[in-house]
Amino acid sequence: IETGHRLTLEHQHDRLSLDAEIAALEDSVAEGHSLELQNIRPVLEEIASDPGVLNRARQRAAMLAAGRKH
């Protein structure tokens, strides 16, 4: 939930930092630390569909929202 809050704030106020935050989330998922992505899926989907966000961050967010790893 904390990650979802950070993603929401960065999406609203600092879109350039989203890529690094999503990359950290990917790493956390790969290491087995972030297992309940369904709780932040709406935030990830919103980021993935926003054309104002860097393409790489949008693609990563879409993959995480779909439950896939990089």
Outline:
The chain has 70 residues and is mainly alpha-helical.
Question: Could you give the topology of this structure?
Answer:
Blueprint: H1 2-13, H2 18-30, H3 41-48, H4 55-65
Helix pairs in contact: 1-2, 2-4, 3-4
Please describe what this structure looks like.
It is built from four helices and no strands. It is mainly α and 70 residues long. The chain is globular, with a radius of gyration of 11 Å. The N and C termini lie far apart (21 Å). The model has no long low-confidence stretch (mean pLDDT 90).
Defining key terms:
mainly alpha, 70 residues, globular, single chain, 63% helix
Bulk shape: globular
The unreliable regions are none
Question: Count of DSSP E strands?
Answer: 0
What would the average pLDDT be, to the nearest integer?
90
| First and last CA, distance | 21 Å
Characterize the quaternary organization of these chains. single chain
